[in-house]
Amino acid sequence: MPNGDEEDRVLIAGGGPVGLICALRLSQSGIPVTVFEQEKKILDDPRAATTHPATLEMLEELGIEREVENAGLVAVEFRFWDRPTGELIASFDHGLLADETRFPYVVQCEQFKTSKIVLDKLSAFPECRVLYSHKVTAVRQAKHQVAVTIECPDGIGPFTGRFLIGADGSRSIVRKAMDIEFEGFTYPERFLVLTTPSDFAADRQYVYRNYLADPTEWCNLFKVSGDGPPGLW
């Protein structure tokens, strides 16, 4: 296992969209960076598909907003429905934000597609390394650098750098190493994410983003582009 002992390198724990976007910004600024991701590859699942105007502005600064938009669906409004009766409660038009943002809409683009777009951009930077099947298991802070212990197919070994960014999710090793509390509470309910090619808009006035209100049987109904037309709900 190589030891990434480089004085000015930034280490990033977690290769999801947050970690990869941090890596892209650092790489564009000429800073060497190594990303450690415990999964073998980017997971192709439909979660976290909604990208809001402020995030689109950030993606534009990174030079990838147009690609993300082309990979998804542009949603100019969202609607609230009464689930039992099917009655439309309210409709919200993002176009009213036109004086506040360059992007008065949201983009329905699955998280993994955004990550793949960023990963492709990172391939242009030789000083950026994205290491899959590399899990951060421990963190040690020294005076002028930080060291992480990595588990990977080659064994267990240390990497060191100037800074460490924690983007390793709700069970973050980095956060625990810094004694940062994960405040809040956990909902007792379990949530399911299902996808289907069935066209829910065929017989109802559903748009790309819908919230169905019900005291016990509420749900959200979104559309994404999937692998191409007609898309998935």
TrEMBL record:
GO biological process, alphabetically ordered: 3-(3-hydroxy)phenylpropionate catabolic process
PANTHER family named among the record's database cross-references: 3-(3-HYDROXY-PHENYL)PROPIONATE/3-HYDROXYCINNAMIC ACID HYDROXYLASE, FAD-BINDING MONOOXYGENASE
Source species: marine metagenome
Domain FAD-binding: 9-195
Listed GO MF terms: 3-(3-hydroxyphenyl)propionate hydroxylase activity; FAD binding
Keywords: Oxidoreductase
InterPro entries named among the record's database cross-references: FAD-bd, FAD/NAD-bd_sf, PheA/TfdB_FAD_monoxygenase
Keyword Cell division assigned: no
Protein name: FAD-binding domain-containing protein
